[in-house]
Amino acid sequence: MQVKKSTCRVNLVQLKNRFSFYLFPERFGFIKSASNQHRVFASIAEPEGETYIIYCTENTPAKEIYFPCRCIQLQIPTRLEEVGITARVAKSLAENKIPCNVVAAFHHDYFFVPEHRAEEALHILNTVF
């Protein structure tokens, strides 16, 4: 099997000066089942079941939340075909032992990091980029 190279390349050096990150003030959480009481940020249908990323409030039971987190948005517009952007961001966080769950959407990429390390993660990304 021959591996094809991607036709879309991103010059990360050129983009570096345009990178801008936004830390959402809200808390988020991953859950397996959502109701109309949850404000859903994103949902993913997997063969094993649904995954929802929800906005958390003080009324959200802690026992129902997996991975309480904050969301960092990459504010430059990205295309789904671009190569290397999310990998570079995730690598920068991994080098600092910060877990990161990535969601790529049509307009932006979103990085969900542990709530207690969100400010640190934002600082790292602003320093690296």
What topology emerges from the helices and strands here?
Elements: H1 12-16, E1 21-23, E2 27-31, E3 39-46, E4 49-56, E5 66-74, H2 85-94, E6 101-104, E7 109-114, H3 118-128
Antiparallel strand pairs: 1-5, 2-4, 2-5, 3-4, 5-7, 6-7
Nearest-integer average pLDDT: 87
Please identify the structural class as seen in this structure. alpha+beta
The major β-sheet equals: 7 strands, antiparallel
Please tell me how large the radius of gyration is.
16 Å
Overall description:
With 129 residues, this protein is α+β, with helices and mostly antiparallel strands. It has helices spanning 12-16, 85-94, 118-128; strands spanning 21-23, 27-31, 39-46, 49-56, 66-74, 101-104, 109-114. Strands 1, 2, 3, 4, 5, 6 and 7 form a seven-stranded antiparallel sheet that branches. Strand 6 and strand 7 (109-114) form a beta hairpin. The termini are far apart. Mean pLDDT is 87; it is low at 3-9.
